[in-house]
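Sequence only, no structure available. Ideas?
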Amino acid sequence: MSFLDNLENSLKNLESREERDPNAAHRRSEERARTMAIAPWAAQLKNSEFTKVLLEKAAQTGHRLRTKIYVAWLDTTLRLEAKGRKLDLEPTAEGIRANFIEPDGEGSHKSVDLNADPGELLRDWLG
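Reply:
I predicted one. Tokens follow.
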């Protein structure tokens, strides 16, 4: 059996399993509604001046602290990581939420105003 035949059989199995699940359509509609609710905030996060200034200040702060600040987009979430600490800027239906994750795994969060100073957020994250 070729790879494509295996792939086709796997897809058919997944489709038939989903057809048998009565909650699948409900889950899909909930996921779609959630995606539609966060879409405007995700677009603002990606295209805002706040994000551009945040990334510039993160580079300056990393240089000053002599550490590399890693930046990644994970779907609609912007992640900054340095010294084992993570800062996730995540769009939600209510706005942008900053999730702070310490090296020991402890976390906290706060809402973010895209009109505020990004330097303040960096100071909260890195101290």
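The radius of gyration is 20 Å.
Hope that gets you unstuck.
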